[in-house]
Each structure stands twice: as C-alpha cells, then as structure tokens.
Amino acid sequence: MRLRFLLRAMLVALALCTTVAPTLSAQTPAETPKPKAKAKAPPKRPEPTVANYKYGDQSERQVFDFWKAESDQPTPVVLLIHGGGWRGGDKSSYGTSVIEAYRKNGISVAAVNYRFIEQAMAQKIEPPVMAPLHDAARALQTIRSKAKDWNIDPTRIGATGGSAGACTSLWLALHDNLANPSSKDPIDRESSRLTCAAVSGAQTSLDPKELREWMPNAIYGGHAFGFAAPGRTRPEEFDLLIENREKVLPWIKEYSPIELVTKDDAPIYLDYPNQKQPPVVGTSEADPTHSAIYGLKLAEKLKATGVEGVLAYPGGPKNDYGSPTNFLITKLKAPAVTK
C-alpha cells in the first residue's frame, strides 16, 4: 500500500513538471523577443532659407539645403557633406549646433545629398564613386551660380564631412577645376575649386596595394569601383579590388585624393578623433577605415608639396586651430585667395 502511494505521488509530480516547465521557459528573458530599435530621429535644426534645392535631374537625392547668414556683405559658404560610405546617410544628420557655429560667424551653410554607390551601379556609371563625387562638385557649382541671389562670396567656399563625406571634401579640394568655360550650361562654367577643407576620419587613398602597405588589415574601397553585390562583405569587395587593381588603376588615381595633390591646392585640416593610439605605418589599426594613418600619409605629401596640411588626433601634435570648425572659420574669414 505504501509503495503504491509513493508511485502515485511521483506520477502526479511528474505530470505537474511537464505542464509547468514550458510556461516557465516561455517567460525566461533569454527567449523573450527583443523590441526593434527605433530609428534615430534627425537632430533639430533651423529652417533652411532654401530647402531641397535641385542641382541635378538624375536622382531625387541631387538636392541640398541652404542657410543664409545675415550680412551686409557677401558671405563665405561651408558645404556639409555627410558620411555613410557613399551608401547611406542624409543631409538631415546636421543639426543646429553645426549649422549655427558657422552662421553666427557670418558664414552661410549648405548641406548636400548625393547619389549612392548602388544607385550609380544601377545607372551603369563607371566607376560608381564618380556619382557621389561629381554630384558634390555639381552642387558646389550650383551654389556658386546663386552668388548674387543668395549674397554669397564665390571666392570663399569650404567643405567638411566625415568618413566618405570627408573623402569627397578632399577630392573637391585637391582635384583640378572641373569647370567647362565653353559649356552652354552656365552652372557647368562655374569653378569646382575650394578655398579650404576640414574633415574628420577621411580616407585619403583608395589604392588597395598602398592601403595594405599602410595597414595590413585595410578593407575599405572595393565598392567604390563596382565590386559591391548583395550579400558581399567589405573584405570580399576589397579582395576583388586587389585582384583587379591593374584594370582599375586609372580610376584609383583619379578618385584617390592623395594622388591629386599639387602646389596650388587649398589648405587642409585632417582630424581623426577616434584614433586610439599614435598612428604607425605598417601596423594593423583598430579602425582601419578611419585611421589617422590616412591623414599622416596625406599630410606628408601636402608638406612636401608646400601645401598647408594640419593633422590632428587624440594625443597628437597641437595646432593653432583646435578643431575642423575653427579651421574653416579662420580660413574663410581671411582675405580671399583666388586659385
């Protein structure tokens, strides 16, 4: 009798365990679905003087916003060129603090959108990086064409941006003038040259051979030359760029800012705020896509050519400007220098 009672108790307990266990398991934190992260809202910013001004008709992204600085005299302009690897990002990422830092110093501001790599590939543009870079140049020329209407001094225009936006800014600053004086299009006749550029986390070369010599773990740039594809990783894109380097070498030289340096170029400020340790050429970097080694090599070439180049990173040499913003304000408020 006692044995029968014990067996019955064990069966009841086992039944309770099989009933309750799934319920407890479903309530464990490890299996609770995580809520989806909300998209980050763009920062607050002043109402543009001119919003979404079209500078091209090949994409809905060929627009910029313009904020006019109050002044009795024609004002300098700073172009804000957003980052995102030429594959993402938007002009709305620039908020009040950035825009007003210039306007309170009598400098007008324009924030530029441009075509992405995937859009360029769909439009069969070769290389795809031509689209975002030439879009930025066209936006700059369009702004110059509005000098009288918007009270702009066309001889004093600077550019800034982070990462891919920084590379674009450097390309504008160092590339020969794209103006076509004989064009029937008045915008096309405007200069594409800059007075100065101050950038953050800039890539200064897109040459995979050079980059691997600078940083053995470099992986950035394959997408710029058409080696992007759905599901393909950045290292895989880079490997394809290495494999096809000789075929695309003319493109590499055309779109790598460091290849374009000449003695008549604008002064440059190169900031690398996320650099964790002093840059050493030939060593792997914690963030090889935004390493100060990029800036170190461009600064060396600028100095050798006689162009002012300021390199800044945490723990690095001190300079007279302190930040990209102060550099641009100082250069753009100085007397204009015609290039």
Care to describe what's here?
Residues 69-270 form the BD-FAE-like domain. One of its GO terms (molecular function) is hydrolase activity. Residues 1-26 form the signal peptide. It comes from Pirellula staleyi (strain ATCC 27377 / DSM 6068 / ICPB 4128) (Pirella staleyi). The chain is α/β, with parallel strands linked by helices and 339 residues long. The chain has 2 domains: 2-31; 50-333, Alpha/Beta hydrolase fold, catalytic domain (Rossmann fold, 3-Layer(aba) Sandwich), CATH 3.40.50.1820. It has helices at 2-26, 96-103, 117-122, 130-145, 147-150, 164-174, 208-214, 234-243, 245-255, 292-305, 324-333; strands spanning 50-54, 63-67, 75-81, 108-112, 152-162, 196-200, 268-271, 309-312. Strand 7 (268-271), helix 10 and strand 8 form a beta-alpha-beta unit. The longest helix has 25 residues, at 2-26. Mean pLDDT is 90; it is low at 1-34.
Q: What structural keywords apply?
A:
single chain, 339 residues, alpha/beta, Rossmann fold, 2 domains, eight-stranded mixed sheet, 11 helices, 36% helix, globular, disordered N terminus
